[in-house]
Amino acid sequence: MDNILNQIGIENYIFLSVILFCIGVFGVLYRRNAIVVFMSIEIMLNAINLLFAAFSTYHQDAQGQIFVFFSMAVAAAEVAVGLAILVSIFRNMHTIDVGKLKNLKG
Amino acid sequence: MDTNLVLVLLLAPFLGFLFNVFLGKKAGKSIVGIVGTLSVAISFAVTLYLFATASQEPVVINLFDWISIQKFDISFGFLIDQLSIIWLLFVTGIGSLIHLYSISYMHDDEKMHSFFAYLNLFIFFMITLVIGSNLLMMFIGWEGVGLCSYLLIGFWYKNQDFNDAAKKAFIMNRIGDLGFLIGIFIVGSMFETLDFTTLKTTITTASDINDLWIAIAALALFIGATGKSAQIPLYTWLPDAMAGPTPVSALIHAATMVTAGIFMLTRLNFLFDMAPSVQNIIAIVGACTALVAATIALVQNDIKKVLAYSTVSQLGLMFLALGLGAYEIAVFHVITHAFFKACLFLGSGSVIHGLHGEQDMRKMGGLKKAMPITFITMLIAALAISGIFPLAGFWSKDEILMTAFHENKALWVIGSIASIMTAFYMFRLIYLTFFNSFRGTEEQKHHLHESPSLITLPLIILAILSFFGGIISLPGHSWLNHYLSPLFSKVSHEAHTLGTTEYMLMAIATIGALIGIGIAYKKYLKDNTIPSEDAEITGFSKVLYNKYYVDEAFDALFVKPINALSSFFRDSVETTLSALVFGLGKVTNSLAFEGKKVHNGSVGLYLFAFVIGIIAILTYLFL
To answer: Considering CB atoms only, which of A29, A32, A102 is closest to B608?
Structure first.
């Protein structure tokens, strides 16, 4: 493991993570399909998880990786809830286009 | 002396009040009248008993300790001494007569029961005022009689003018009461007691008394007295108080309540003796009131208004005597005045009753034949108030003028002029009312009749008292002075030896009175002058007729500025304040109205703002 990390270099992990995160952000901002937005959020989460794992190895400290497990568990729960909400929205509005969900208009 | 006896004296009118308030309407008019009169008559009987058996020493009865704070104790107690007995005698005595009179006078009124209830309540409070053993007890009575006065002036409350008169009386009295209260506070803080007996010993024996504060206290108390006893500048309520039924005017606004101020000053004579400067003020105010009120009375046409101003004027004479330190003479005049003024008021009530409510003397005349008893009794009372020998008013008024002559010639001149005017306007009243031909309507003429015996009986008794009342204090052999002597520190006035000066003064006073009567005789009987209609009155008499425009002056000086100030606060200050408050609300509201447009419901925009926000926070934190 150390070898791989050493070969690739920690900074590349960071770059990857940042790129993934930004992809996630732009996905959230620009896509209109709620499921895609949801996927983008997952990408952002996993970008962070990746960073956790990389630094955990870099510091020879298992805590980061343990935290990733937690994070994944929470993300799984969140997906379950989020998808349920999406199903419910679709049933009521017959669309999951976030551009059309304007019922919060003040 | 028995505590129970005093309680009977005090509570009999109160029980009468309770009965008339709660059961009066059911019980019927005759029972209301009997209960009301009887309850006061019981008090009178008790007073007579007290008078007959009382010893020289004052009796203090403490029912219970009322307020006690550290060293400061106020007991709920009564003080029965010569002064309170004298006052009780004529309050309950004349009170009984007037109750008797009211049975007939108020018989046609639908609210007769409440009339008697108020009248009984008044007697109750008046007795409290008179027999209270400390200033606070006196103040309770003082306020209570003010309340009853208000209720009775506004008794016919359906007439807005009468309501206004009642309110005016109440408010004017409040101004005086404030002075009284301040006086009580000063006395209380100086001597740590309000008890009359303790105060007297403290003040007469203590050597280190602050003269200035004593004077301020005396002045404040005197202001209280000017309110209740209708002296300048607070006298204007009394003439308006004539709006009440005539027995009320006789009882409250002539014989008893308005003398409360004189009672208070006499009760506290030791305090006023310590403040000679205030005594001067009292004498001057009294003399001025006597003169001013007498001049106004000269041209009034309402029979009760004449008597009202006459009352103010006579009260002024009493204050003149008080100011000169001649307390016993003031008390003497209070008593004789109670007799003849009550008689005059009841007589005028009889006339008004006979004419079915007419009060304007221009529409009277020639009533001598139709109402002989009313005429004779009123004539006796008018002679008495004018100071004709040997009626009651002669002795008391003469004593006042004599004292004034010895102390201050200017005050004597003012008092004498006021007396001459008194004789004039009283006989103007008599001539206009009873002589010449009747000037009312034919229908009234047809109904002219003497009043029933319940009305004439009190008149006759009071006329007899007005005739012989003077014997209680003849110069040289004054029973009254002797009786009251334990109350006063100095009894120098006892020593009025009847020298040439005194006889001269008596002669001058009598001649003055005769001149006054003579002028009235010439003008109103021989020439048969009828006072002109309101609109035709010109010159100085117009000023007099309009009471020196004092009401208008008060209106312009106090009422209008206060109203202007109120409307200023309402229109400017309050509007500004509410504009400020409402403005804040409006600004917030409109901001919110603009702000809510941001919330257009687009999740994309929210997320965008969210990301921008996080970026901004991160930038701020880490860069």
So the answer is: A29
Range name among A44-58, A90-104, B397-411 with the lowest pLDDT average = A90-104
Q: Best mutation site among B591, B602, B603 for testing chain A: the one with the most A CBs within 10 Å?
A: B603
Q: How far apart are CA B619 and CA B623, in angstroms?
A: 5
Q: Is the same domain home to B402 and B320?
A: yes
User: Is B395 within the bounds of a domain?
Assistant: yes
Q: Which pLDDT tens digit goes with each residue over B437-459?
A: 888 788 777 878 888 888 899 99
Half-sphere exposure of A101 (CA within 13 A, CB side): 19
Angle subtended at Cα B263 by Cα B226 and Cα B416, rounded to the nearest 5 degrees: 65
Residues B315, B343 within the same domain: yes
The residue of chain B with its CA nearest to that of A98 is: B603
CA distance A73 to B354: 110
Q: Residue A60: inside a domain, yes or no?
A: yes
Among the partner-chain residues A29, A32, A102, the one whose CB lies closest to the CB of B600 is A102
Whole-number Å distance between alpha carbons of A2 and B10: 113
Show the 3-state SS of B225-261: HHHHCCCCCCCCHHHHHHHCCHHHHHHHHHHCHHHHH
State pLDDT tens for residues B85-135. Answer: 999 999 999 999 999 999 998 888 888 999 999 999 999 999 999 999 999
